[in-house]
């Protein structure tokens, strides 16, 4: 029984899987935040471009 408990305590396979899961989660969070910021900046840029184009066009 002592061997079984000692082997269970030394086993780190579960800890490694949890670490990889946490890393994957953090990477996914970083991608989501980056994509959101990129989308916001692109939206502002296209709105700016549309405003400039409309100001350049002659009034009808």
Description of the structure:
The chain has 2 helices and no strands. With 60 residues, the chain is mainly alpha-helical. It has a domain at 25-55. The chain is rod-shaped. The model has no long low-confidence stretch (mean pLDDT 90).
Pick out its properties.
transmembrane; membrane; Flp family type IVb pilin; 60 residues; single chain; mainly alpha; Flp_Fap
Give the N-terminus to C-terminus distance in angstroms. Answer: 90 Å
* H and E string: HH
Number of helices: 2
Largest sheet: none
Binned strand content: under 5%
Q: Helical amount among residues, as a percent range?
A: over 70%
Computed CA radius of gyration, to the nearest angstrom: 27 Å
Summarize the topology:
Blueprint: H1 2-10, H2 13-56
Give a brief description.
This protein is mostly helical. Helices cover 88% and strands 0% of the residues. The longest helix is centred in the middle third of the chain and has 44 residues, at 13-56.
């Amino acid at each position: 029984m002592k061997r079984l408990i000692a082997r269970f305590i030394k086993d780190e396979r579960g800890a490694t899987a949890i670490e990889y899961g946490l890393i994957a989660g953090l990477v996914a969070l970083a991608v989501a935040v980056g994509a959101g910021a990129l989308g916001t900046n692109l939206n502002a840029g296209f709105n700016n471009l549309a405003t400039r184009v409309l100001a350049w066009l002659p009034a009808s």
